[in-house]
Amino acid sequence: MKIMDRYITREFIKPFFISLLIFIFLYLLIQFLEESGDILKEKQKLYPLFKNYLFQIPSVFVQLSPIAILLSSLFVLGTFSRYNETIAFQVAGISLYRIFLPFLLFGFLLSGISFLVNDRIVPPLSLKIESSGEKKLSEITFHTKEKMLYAELFDREKGVLFGLQILSYSDGALQKIINAKSALYSDKEVWILKNGISRQFNRQGRRISQSEFNSLKIDLKLSPETLLTGYRKAEQLSFNELLFYLRRLKKDGLYPAVQLVDLHSKTAVPFINLFVLFLGLPFLLSFHLPANRFFGIGFSIIVCFLYYWIFSLGIALGKERLLYPFLGAWFANFFFGTIGIFLLAFVKK
């Protein structure tokens, strides 16, 4: 690493961490103030609440790091411009493109860190936050090409389904219906159904047999983890868990556009740290905008707000199948990256 790179990196790291910590603190403070009325009303204990806030920090880091990296970049460039250091670099034969390189490398590194945090740390912490709340889920459904499962209630702690109904199909025709008051998970995707009734149907939909049972062991080819996967939010699943779930849905002949968009978002979101620099740095220097602190804060917030708005639009279009899932998830990155590359042409080298 050259002396210039070390100098720029050293000047960049301090404002980045300061701004990131401030943004995370303000985010959690605002959330606490919004919930303070309910806390006092319901007399909730503060320790579990603060623990949940601590669990949210990795997720907030992933969301707010693009603002922090853009703000610190603008701050450093503003300092260089104020003390004519940018001109000194150019006099020494160093182009502005070369000055951008340490910022882009740091953005790439931060994107990798954000991906690891979002993939390895955020999902288990999000599950812990959820597990501290509701222990039971109502109206559980699970579909495959040959089976539909419905349960009125699922006790996640005990692994028990209540009010279970299983519809089995063969070549699109209803073959069997099983109703049970409860079903307890055994192991290896086998469930033990209690106090139920089984009905067989012919291809014309007429019942041909019926039998009651007190206990029935059945292989549903379904574990509680797989059952819950479809009900977890994207941030509660790692990349591999979501990929495994997608492969299972595709194996059953389904096209899970929503989950495909969520999967590609796992990589698109961390790289906002890199692509936001492609837009922000050339925009600042191309139009010779002021680079003071207050402008930098406002500019960074506005750019990231627009970025996340376009990102949400791409996600919505992808989930509605108006864009391919990959393009929907990466739409904002490609859109702003293209604008940033175009603006680079206006930067005086």
Can you walk through the features of this model?
The protein has helices at residues 3-42, 46-82, 85-91, 96-131, 224-229, 239-251, 257-268, 272-286, 293-319, 325-344; strands at residues 136-143, 147-155, 160-170, 173-185, 190-201, 207-219. With 349 residues, the chain is an alpha+beta fold. The protein has 2 domains: 3-132 and 262-344, no CATH class; 145-222, Lipopolysaccharide (LPS) transport protein A like domain (lipopolysaccharide transport protein A fold, Sandwich), CATH 2.60.450.10. It has a 6-stranded antiparallel β-sheet, with no helix packed on it. β4 and β5 (190-201) form a beta hairpin. α1 (3-42) packs antiparallel against α2, α1 (3-42) runs parallel beside α4 (96-131) and α2 packs antiparallel against α4 (96-131). It is elongated and about 90 Å long.
